[in-house]
Amino acid sequence: MARAYLSTTDHSGIIRSIPLFSGLTAEEQDSFLKSGNLYFYNRKDIIFQQGDTIRSLYIIAEGIVQEFSRTYGGREITQNLHREGDIICKTEVFLQDDLHQTGAVAVSDAHVFELPVHAFKNNLMKHNCVATSFLSSLAEHSFMKQQEIEQKMTMTTTEILASYLRQVCKTHGLSARGFTLPFKKTLIASRLGMELETLSRALPKLKQHGITVKGSQVVFHDAALS
Amino acid sequence: MARAYLSTTDHSGIIRSIPLFSGLTAEEQDSFLKSGNLYFYNRKDIIFQQGDTIRSLYIIAEGIVQEFSRTYGGREITQNLHREGDIICKTEVFLQDDLHQTGAVAVSDAHVFELPVHAFKNNLMKHNCVATSFLSSLAEHSFMKQQEIEQKMTMTTTEILASYLRQVCKTHGLSARGFTLPFKKTLIASRLGMELETLSRALPKLKQHGITVKGSQVVFHDAALS
DNA sequence: CGGAAATTTGAGCAATTTCAACATGGGTGG
DNA sequence: CCACCCATGTTGAAATTGCTCAAATTTCCG
Q: Strand D positions with any atom < 7 Å from protein CB?
């Protein structure tokens, strides 16, 4: 676990801009910030493993982090791909078990702000606005998972992929006129719960949905948006 | 929406025994109880519909309630089958939208305690113990949904069914030596996201997993438990 | 005892996975 | 700067699995 403490780089701006803490005054935000530390992970570094004791919440300040679980069959399932501003481990912190249900690994070099669980919980109780927006955040996560279930049940892989690409474009703030895939296709396939081959075969079919993918270049043809 | 107000029957015991409110004193529990009302629904009565404005949380005091959503394709997806003690609409209450994302219908005659949203939220903020156990409850729900996703990705329908039957046996407090299915097979199939025919064909295969189903009678052969 | 609803069974179909071979591409050492 | 190599991605063909449509049974209730 080759992580390094980062004292120099200042990512407080990113932490401050997180919706969860947006209702706080600057001083209150500092209280959060002082409770934790910022670490640097190299590509492929493990941030935590399934089964580890949960010590902190992980707030991504920079980079991409893959969260995954391994099933009994040894199969690896990508639960989420997290980016700047995402908070990992929000849910697990409130489960009975204080063990990580998932593992997390840096997909790219990453800066991660690690906030001890107790510090988080204390402050959560102290500030109603944080508690409320945390609840919303949990609820939204839950809702999105449910939507994914429904998608998988009612849509073809091509449709799911199209939907995902549009979502990526939006949440990553990319141009619909053309952008480069932010992840490797293998990762995307894993995230969508399909095989790489299936994704590969779905790519050409995306044209029927107004999307062209050549290599890692994506273009939406109905780019009414910027 | 043929629901009837129920003044006579006293279900306060059921409400009181809900984990969410277990940390409260009897007086505090009463405060919750007085904020809402108990209603009776006949089999097939609609409790709320997808798109309705959310007014209350729904706590099942008796009976079975199906929660479902309808997708664009008009397909109906059962998200959950709720029973005595379950709280419906926990999550939606904290979404941006104040509209029901799902519909709910009484599968059997049911008694439902309806707790207005504002009353719930107020009391939630007031009592830390309720807030905490509510968070746990949300987290657990989220975790279980994730597990279902993983199941669907890694297990065959037969395995999923076996897993579900064991879960039902446990959560409904039934005897592993033999019990009657608490729901119609159509409902179970819908709950598990499979076709009735698929479920039907999976039943014989359950023997490989130590389960025999004849009609609506279920027996676990490895009944080490009571 | 009827008749409707629920379940089972059959046969063919469609989609995805699997296994295997092949192509591409980016980066490194010579 | 180029050849080579490993990782990544694509393509083909066969095998699985669950779905769909249809028909036969069984169960449930009045």
A: 8-13, 17-22, 27-28
pLDDT at A1 over 50: no
Give, for A200, the enclosing helix (H) or strand (E): helix A196-205
**Burial label, B155 (beta-carbon count in 10 A; 0-12, 13-18, 19+):** middle
Integer Cα distance of B174 and B181 in angstroms: 10
Asked if A153 has any chain B CB less than 8 Å from its own CB, the reply is yes
Percent share of chain A, pLDDT over 90: 74
* Distance in angstroms (rounded) separating the CA atoms of residues B64 and B62: 7
Q: Which helix (DSSP H) or strand (DSSP E) does residue A60 occupy?
A: strand A56-62
Residue of chain B with shortest Cα separation from A148: B149
- CA-nearest residue to A150 within chain B is B77
- DSSP assignment string, B5-20: E--SS--HHHHHT-GG
The candidate with the shortest Cα–Cα distance to B189, out of B200, B176, B177, B204, is: B200
pLDDT score, position A185: 97
Q: What integer pLDDT is reported at residue A11 of this predicted model?
A: 64
Cα–Cα distance, A154 to B191 (Å, whole number): 14
The residues of chain B scoring below 50 in pLDDT are: 1, 226
pLDDT digits (tens, 9 = 90+) for A159-196: 999 999 999 999 999 998 999 999 999 999 999 999 99
The interaxial angle of helices B117-126 and B128-154, nearest 10 deg, is: 110
Chain A and chain B share a number of CB contacts under 8 A equal to 99
- Given this model, what pLDDT does residue A130 score? 86
Asked if the C-beta of B143 comes within 8 angstroms of chain A's C-beta atoms, the answer is yes
